[in-house]
Design a protein that fits this description.
The protein is α/β, with parallel strands linked by helices. It has helices spanning about 65-70, 85-105, 115-125, 145, 150-155, 160-165, 190-200, 215-220, 225-235, and strands at about 15-20, 25-35, 45, 75, 110-115, 135, 180-185, 205-210. It has one domain (about 5-235): 3-Layer(aba) Sandwich (Rossmann fold). Helix content is about 30%, strand content about 20%. Strand 5 (about 110-115), helix 3 and strand 6 form a beta-alpha-beta unit.
Length: about 240
């Protein structure tokens, strides 16, 4: 199936929430946006950002329309936030949500994550071997700077967790093609980590000029933007 944005198709968008798993802490939910049409659709699966403690699956709705109008589904995972759970629990919930989508909805998964969602998506890539491709946007891939910062007051990393949940230290476990992107106006640390991660992966990468850390993910809603084009190309 050719994945090309075509608003003239005018797919009606079906939106539904599904229970992925009932955890002791909470019921894990995903919100699915899909064409109301016959067929099996590839899925762009979004892991939202928010410094591991903010945002929800509702925030990502802005990107759904161009993905659906291209003939694919857009799936946004819901998961618990820090400090209500630990980082290992949070990463585990993301992995279980992705597994549910693969087992019950689509075998063609392109994983997308931004900021802390980019980190969590990167962690998932080191643990799951069935993801088709991944687009990581302005993420953190080495948690040492987080452990040494005030943010560790709620992330609660020690040396072992820092190593275990730093995707850049487990490159050998990543089995699918990955594209890494960052914003021209990102902080130096986001830019540095993105470049180093893409170099260690030997992965394609690009900088989106004239946008900041928050604006870059909003361009996913524009099929003509570098981020939008990359996502649609990966869904081919």
């Amino acid at each position: 199936m050719a994945i090309v944005y075509d608003p003239s198709k005018q797919y009606e968008i079906k939106v539904w929430d599904v229970e992925c798993r009932r955890d002791p802490v909470r019921t894990l939910m995903a919100r699915i946006y899909q064409p109301r049409a016959r067929g099996l659709f590839p899925a762009l699966l979004d892991v939202h950002g928010g410094a591991w403690k903010r945002e929800s699956k509702r925030w990502s709705a802005f990107a759904a329309e161009p993905i659906v109008q291209a003939g694919a589904s857009f799936v946004v995972l819901g998961f618990a936030a820090l400090p209500g759970v630990t980082l290992p629990e949070m990463a585990g919930q993301v992995c279980r949500g992705i597994e549910w989508v693969y087992q019950n909805f689509s075998k063609e998964i392109v994983l997308c994550g931004h900021s802390s969602g980019g980190h969590l998506a990167g962690c998932a890539l080191t643990r799951l071997n069935f993801i088709k491709r991944a687009l990581l946007i302005s993420g953190l891939y080495d948690l040492l700077p987080v452990r040494l910062s005030a943010r560790n007051g709620y992330v609660r990393l020690d040396g072992r967790l820092e190593d275990e949940f730093s995707p850049i230290r487990h490159i050998d476990r990543i089995r699918c093609p990955v594209t890494v992107a960052w914003a021209g106006k990102d902080s130096e640390e986001f830019r540095r980590q993105s470049k180093e991660f893409s170099e260690k992966l030997d992965a394609p990468s690009f900088e989106v000029k004239n946008v900041n850390h928050f604006e870059i993910v909003e361009t996913l809603a524009d099929p003509a933007s570098p981020i939008g084009r990359a996502a649609l190309t990966m869904l081919q």
